[in-house]
Write a structure and sequence with these properties.
This protein has one helix and twelve strands, in the order αββββββββββββ. It is mostly beta strands and about 180 residues long. The longest helix has 19 residues. The radius of gyration is 15 Å and the shape is globular. About 35% of the residues are buried.
Length: about 180
Amino acid sequence: MSREALLAMALSAAAGGLLAQAAPAPRPAAPPGPAGTPAQGPAVQPQSAPGVPGAPGTLAQPDVQLPTDTTLPAPHTIGWMRVGQTRAGNLQDGDFRMGDGTWADVWYFEGAAGQHVVIDLKSSAFNAYLQLLDAAGNKIAEDTDGGGGRDARITFTLREAGRYQVVVNNETDDVKTGPYTLSLH
């Protein structure tokens, strides 16, 4: 089975596991992306966050971090980013488990049609593997070395407005943990 197929199965399973842990009202899991891409992850509808006009938020949803919260997301939490932000993260036990057994973090950001984005993933703890998924959960870009070295970089022009997902993982199927920084420009 290919690495991409394993990734798709893992994020689909992670979405199911996350939903089983969620409190009050269960939300339906998002459908997996096409073969070779990770699943979209938990189905979370952005809402307007208080004090952040027009910003997507996640009121009363403990599994998604507000875009204004710059603390490290806890394991199995989806973080929000804004263009111009650099966020710290940590691949660790309890994160979303990929089909190959590695850990992954998922980050959301709102994008506009025609917007040019650059996403940089840097870590001294592991060789970076980065994916960009569209609003439907389809993989639209990926990188493992940013043109050389351990870091990863995606440069992409968004085709439509919507919530995009950035998946942070390590390049090999060896389980790696450790801190990283993720920048969105």
